[in-house]
């Protein structure tokens, strides 16, 4: 037995018998030889020091133990206790979080996430809380256990979302807990508190088992709960009102909200409350739903337009709540001159593609036997790449009957079948913006090449057909109405900026007094490369056809754009700082350009990017088109156009095209493999390459093949992943503990996942809440929802309520709007619009 072993035994013997001073002497001696001790002994020393309040010593010993493979369950817990007792720096937590295997201890991760957030590392803490919450919810679904941890996670996310000014996401996480079956509940006081803060208290105190729950709640939180019970029963207790008037709340937020409650319960007192006082209260609580409701109710009686302006600004924060929908709708409905009784008989909308799923968008608009086609997109993972036009033929409409094809934007799921369509009808008039036409040239040409290389499609068009297609496209300007003749009548067509990507348009059509707006894909919020949707005020819309990509399932599309970008940059920076390499698979059009500008903005104070940023695949040529239009001052967001072009919009300052350095053409002296070994493998590099879904043989899939089995690499997906795509399979496998260690196909080669895999939604699509607001403000008679997954709903676990209560889909929210018919569109279905002077409106559908 060595001397150290003897000292260890003596220290344990003395500690077990309560001779702590003597044991401490032994442990202090051992501390000098920490590098020679095993993980078990180091953990024992760390625990002893923790009990003696020697927190820094405890933390250091626990750290060494973990480095030598100590159990994170035991030693990690001691480490966190020592950190908390010692009130030490955040860096210690960051170190622990980065240790291998921490993902298996979500209780540790929740603690770290909370401390990081409140310690000033908001983005890092928030991202960790979201990732851990998803992991915990998945575990609960699989095993119907760990509900205490599930509640801990939901309440933490509720708090963080609220503090970040995102009440909709906060309510979603709260509702997952609020409706749990009683035997699964815990932390009743905190649930009650957040129900009050987020105005979900009515649902909480209306539970059938409220009297049992009430016993676990106390103090001022219980008082507010009881106040709502009185209000629900139609009672107004004099004692309750006197208490509200005279007794300040201890909690800072509840005290801020006390005036709101007084305005709610004391009608006599409310009558004396000035509009200015309510305005000041709203300024104190800008994200509070109840305060907004009371303030705008009072404001409406004085200045209706001002009340509408408040709701226009605030509605998107509360679009998930029926009270907000009813209040804003009542204001909009009362507008003079907006009421109309359109006669819509003779209108038909037929979805040939792009209905209940993304891909192959093509929509036939028929008004009084005159027909226009909207978009002609391609399918990515179906037998036929083009839309099925048989339903159009079944209606007696042939290609020759079409007055025109109107194109919204250049993504392939909207333009990929245009050459096919023109092959059937070569003289068909086609319209698109100038930027869309320029981008179509790149995307359609590349589609022909990649299809030929991969032998994906037998009847794909060729380069000659692409050239003919481009010659057929007539460029149109935004906000300039043009005429398309139709058998003695005229379509009046106006393109409006849709946001989304360069040149994207929403298309407004009028014929014989009937108006249709097709949004195409759109974004309300400005992006770096393009501004958001721009529609004129008081636009008359009878039939609205809107995308609904993020309308059905909870996603971080509701998250503030700035938060998403910060999380993305922080993740990339972590890998770069560790001398790693980053691959960002991205859609060549739109997403890739946003990513480049996000990264350049993040390091704008540097002379150059602190890493090499390479563009590859179709991304490069599309970036050049964006840069050309920036120099022309057209289509690109003016905010990012450089004052001088000494520093171009995209290229330069460390951003370069990988294709300028290598070539895979036969006879090339410097091929991709050599480029990768020389420039990417050494680290401190980032690649943005198409495709965003890692389609085999694409540029991004070549990089992924080489990077996915390296621990020093990050693959960061940046947008939508089709369920059948290689990118989706990689992401799912990386998130599944049960499948870890296996292999999967990457670019046709079997690989094991060792790289870090992350997914972000740097979305160019409108959110669920923004769609609701747009529909309410346009006030159509009919709204068709397309480009979404109508059949999908959030599935709660262990709750008394259905998914549409916890996370109402776009359909459920829109159906709360009185007088609006909501139609989730299905491919191959034709909808005949019928109306009778505005008194009655419906659709008949034909499959």
UniProtKB/TrEMBL annotation:
Hydrolase among keywords: yes
Top-rank taxon, per record: Bacteria
One annotated GO molecular function: hydrolase activity
Keyword Hydrolase: yes
Annotated keywords: Hydrolase
InterPro entries: Beta_Casp (IPR022712), MBL (IPR050698), Metallo-B-lactamas (IPR001279), RibonucZ/Hydroxyglut_hydro (IPR036866), RMMBL (IPR011108)
Pfam families: Beta-Casp, Lactamase_B_6, RMMBL
Reaction catalyzed: 3',5'-cyclic UMP + H2O = UMP + H(+); 3',5'-cyclic CMP + H2O = CMP + H(+)
Domain Metallo-beta-lactamase stretches: 359-572
Domain Beta-Casp: 592-730
Main function: Counteracts the endogenous Pycsar antiviral defense system. Phosphodiesterase that enables metal-dependent hydrolysis of host cyclic nucleotide Pycsar defense signals such as cCMP and cUMP.
Protein's name according to its UniProt entry: Beta-lactamase
Annotated source species: Brevibacillus panacihumi W25
């Amino acid at each position: 037995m060595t001397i150290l072993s003897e000292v260890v035994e003596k220290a344990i013997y003395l500690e077990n018998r309560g001779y702590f001073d003597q044991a401490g002497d032994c442990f202090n001696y051992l501390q000098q030889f920490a590098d020679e001790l095993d993980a078990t002994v180091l953990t024992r020393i760390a625990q002893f020091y923790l009990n003696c309040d020697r927190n820094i010593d405890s933390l250091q010993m626990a750290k060494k133990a973990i480095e030598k493979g100590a159990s994170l369950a035991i030693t990690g817990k001691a480490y966190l206790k020592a950190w908390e007792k010692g009130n030490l720096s955040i860096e210690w937590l960051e170190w622990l979080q980065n240790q291998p295997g921490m993902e298996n201890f979500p209780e540790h991760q929740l603690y770290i996430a909370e401390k990081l957030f409140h310690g000033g590392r908001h983005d890092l803490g928030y991202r960790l809380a979201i990732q851990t919450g998803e992991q915990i919810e998945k575990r609960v679904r699989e095993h119907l256990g760990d509900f205490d941890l599930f509640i801990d996670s939901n309440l933490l996310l509720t708090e963080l979302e609220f503090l970040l000014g995102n009440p909709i996401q906060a309510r979603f996480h709260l509702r997952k807990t609020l409706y749990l079956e009683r035997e699964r509940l815990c932390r009743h006081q905190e649930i009650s508190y957040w129900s009050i803060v987020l105005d979900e208290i009515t649902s909480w105190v209306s539970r059938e088992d409220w009297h049992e729950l009430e016993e676990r709640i106390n103090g001022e939180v219980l008082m507010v709960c009881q106040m709502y019970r009185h209000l629900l029963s139609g009672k107004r207790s004099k004692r309750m009102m006197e208490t509200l008037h005279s007794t300040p709340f201890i909690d800072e937020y509840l005290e801020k909200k006390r005036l709101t409650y007084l305005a709610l319960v004391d009608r006599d007192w409310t009558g004396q409350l000035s509009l200015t006082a309510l305005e000041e209260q709203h300024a104190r609580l800008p994200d509070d739903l109840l305060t907004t409701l009371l303030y705008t109710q009072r404001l409406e009686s004085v200045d209706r337009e001002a009340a509408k302006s408040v709701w226009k600004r605030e509605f998107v924060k509360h679009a998930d709540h029926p009270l907000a929908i009813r209040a804003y709708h009542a204001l909009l409905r009362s507008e003079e001159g907006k009421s109309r009784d359109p006669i819509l008989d003779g209108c038909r909308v037929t979805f040939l593609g792009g209905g209940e799923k993304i891909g192959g968008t093509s929509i036939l608009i028929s008004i009084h036997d005159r027909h226009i086609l909207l978009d002609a997109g391609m399918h990515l993972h179906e037998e036929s790449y083009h839309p099925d036009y048989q339903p159009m033929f079944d209606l007696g409409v042939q290609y020759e009957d079409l007055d025109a094809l109107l194109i919204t934007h250049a993504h392939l799921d909207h333009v990929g079948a245009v050459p096919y369509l023109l092959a059937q009808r070569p003289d068909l008039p086609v319209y698109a913006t100038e930027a869309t036409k320029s981008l179509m040239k790149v995307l359609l040409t590349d589609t022909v090449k990649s299809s030929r290389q991969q032998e994906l499609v037998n009847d794909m068009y060729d380069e000659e057909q692409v050239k003919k297609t481009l010659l057929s496209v007539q460029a149109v300007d935004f906000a300039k109405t043009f005429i398309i003749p139709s058998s003695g009548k005229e379509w009046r067509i106006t393109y409006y900026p849709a946001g989304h990507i360069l040149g994207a348009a929403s298309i407004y059509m009028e014929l014989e007094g009937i108006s249709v707006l097709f949004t195409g894909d759109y974004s309300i919020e400005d992006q770096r490369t393009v501004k958001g949707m721009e529609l004129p005020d008081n636009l008359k819309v009878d039939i609205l056809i809107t995308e609904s990509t993020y309308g059905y399932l909870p996603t971080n599309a509701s998250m503030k754009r700035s938060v998403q970008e910060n999380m993305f940059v922080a993740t990339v920076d972590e890998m770069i700082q560790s001398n790693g390499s980053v691959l960002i698979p991205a859609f060549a059009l739109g997403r890739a350009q946003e990513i480049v500008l996000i990264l350049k903005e993040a390091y704008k104070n540097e002379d150059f990017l602190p890493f090499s940023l390479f563009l590859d695949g179709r991304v490069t040529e599309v970036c050049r088109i964006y840069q050309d239009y920036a120099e022309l001052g057209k289509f690109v967001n003016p905010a990012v156009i450089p004052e001088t072009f000494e520093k171009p919009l995209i290229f330069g300052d460390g951003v370069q095209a990988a294709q300028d350095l290598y070539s895979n053409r036969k006879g090339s002296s410097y091929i991709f493999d050599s480029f990768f070994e020389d420039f990417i493998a050494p680290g401190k590099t980032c690649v943005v390459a198409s495709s965003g879904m890692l389609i085999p043989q694409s540029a991004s899939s070549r990089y992924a093949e080489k990077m996915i089995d390296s621990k020093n690499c990050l693959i960061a997906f940046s947008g939508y992943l089709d369920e059948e795509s290689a990118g989706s399979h990689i992401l799912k496998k990386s998130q599944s503990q049960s499948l870890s260690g296996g292999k999967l196909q990457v670019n046709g080669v079997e690989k094991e996942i060792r790289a870090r895999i992350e997914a972000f939604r740097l979305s160019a699509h409108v959110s669920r809440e923004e769609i609701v607001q747009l529909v309410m403000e346009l006030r159509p008679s009919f709204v068709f929802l397309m480009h979404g997954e109508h059949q999908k709903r959030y599935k709660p676990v262990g709750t008394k309520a259905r998914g549409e209560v916890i996370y109402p889909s776009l359909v459920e929210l829109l159906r709360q709007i009185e007088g609006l018919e909501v139609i989730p569109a299905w491919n191959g279905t034709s909808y005949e619009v019928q109306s009778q002077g505005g008194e009655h409106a419906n659709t008949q559908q034909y499959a």
